Amino acid sequence: MHSSWRCGALSLILIALAGCAEPSSPSGEAAVPDDATMETPGVPQANLAQWARSCALCHVRGEGGAPPAGDAAAWAPRLAKGEDTLLRHTIEGFNNMPPLGYCMDCSRDDFRRLIRFMAGES
Ligand code: HEC
Q1: Which of 83, 108, 109, 117 sits a CA distance of 20 to 30 A from 46?
Q2: What residue ranges define each of the domains in the chain, with the CATH number in brackets?
């Protein structure tokens, strides 16, 4: 029995700082790998910006049946159609998927990278 009430009362703050029960554990910051920066490997920053203001509108929450970004199970049957088909559907539109996916300044190569990025293969 050793200041457990304090631990309980302050646990939220203490967890945020370093952890009450394990004073010798490393700080929370150390758990983040060195390469966890804003830039995703293989995806240029410009493409991420395009993605954030177009594809992300629907492909984050699966709006209208869109396969959510990073959801490998949702993307597997899409990828099975082949990249050329996916690229064509992105440019021409496909059911609820609008032509160009709202990205007016995306090139074909940009679309390829965005599709790979969302399908989790970059
Ligand atoms: C307005 C919402 C919306 C936006 C914006 C959007 N999508 Fe989609 N997308 C969808 C929906 C809905 C589907 C599912 C269509 C279906 O399968 O019927 C889809 C499907 C797709 C598919 C799979 C097509 C296939 O043949 O299975 C690809 C690839 C895709 N989107 C790429 C993109 C890219 C790249 C962007 C951004 C440049 C984008 N989408 C922006 C709604 C959107």
Answers
A1: 83
A2: 1-33 (no CATH), 45-119 (1.10.760.10)
Cβ-contact 42, 122 below 8 angstroms: yes
In this predicted structure, the answer to whether residue 87 has a pLDDT above a threshold of 70 is yes
Ligand 1 neighbours, Cβ below 6 Å, are: 54-55, 57-59, 63-67, 78, 81, 85-86, 89-90, 94-98, 101-103, 106, 111, 114-115
Question: How many angstroms is it from 47 CA to the middle of ligand 1?
Answer: 16
Ligand 1 centre and the CA of 35: distance in Å?
29
Q: How far is the CA of 60 from the centre of ligand 1 (A)?
A: 11
Spatial separation of the C-alpha atoms in residues 99 and 103, rounded to whole Å: 9
| Amino acid 22: pLDDT | 44
Q: What is the mean pLDDT of the chain?
A: 79
